[in-house]
Please model this.
Amino acid sequence: MKKKNLEKLIFKSLDGVLTEKESAALEYELKNSSEAKKLFAELRSLRKGIENLPELTFKPFFEERVIAKLNIDNSKSESFPNFPEALGLSFRKFAIAAALILALLITYNLNNGNSYSIENLLGTYKTPLEYVLDPTMNLIWGRI
Amino acid sequence: MTEQNDWELIEQTRAGDKYAYSELVRRYKSKVAATVFGMIGKCDEAEDIGQEVFIRFYNAINNFRGESAVGTYLCRIAINLSLNEIKRKKVRNFLSFDKMLEDDAEIPDKGNLELFDEKGEIIRNAIAKLSAKYRSVIVLRLIEQYSTEETAKILELPVGTVLSRLARAQAQLKKYLQPYISSL
Model:
């Protein structure tokens, strides 16, 4: 029997999944071939070596570290705001920034204009058609 | 005082008893350690992954229905996290041109055998040289000693695939460990 096929049979034998026919074939090989006996012993020895590997363990107080991590994770999720709160927090920053910009705009327009109208304060006065057609008119009147 | 069974500890954990969960961790940490160390070797990340296994189980404990045993469930998480770590290492090492765990796993020729204290280290280094898919069947079937069917269930593979991977893995290990087979 070829070595590859013999190896397959031996692996199946060690796994306990040989059919009757395969079992008989392996038995015949082991009875009549010293090479087969040697290979069987080697593969069984390899398997035993792996099965009997000394145990590796985590460092001491592993459970304590896991529980400590769970406690940290729990307290993080309690202090983290929920979605509406988070949205409010983010919106607050934009609201403050917008208020500052508005204050600056109003101050600037107050300094440059001579009216307290909303259009003047916000700089939304309507530009007459002649100023649009001839921008130099704005330079004369200081509107730009 | 009789020891509580796993399901009782799970119910207590669901009720908020962290001491009960600590007991579950104590019961299964060796099993998880065997899986993680088998898959990624003795390294700093192994402890982190071990902790992550139990943290994920804790976070999913309300959904755990007991279709599989606690040990099997934890093993499945450990295998998945270990495989993720192996993939992450591959990418990191590819980008930094560092050697892989498999490259670092040295199997001595008989000349420098005295550098290795135990044959266990030689075997572990040989296992570390296997690809992840072969390593997982060796770890579950031979080191953790799950049955072929249980191994197939954990890895979500057909039994036939587990058997063929096991055979190929053992054939490769035999090649790596040929000089030492008689003394294993």
User: Anything to note?
Assistant: The longest helix of chain A spans residues 83-112.
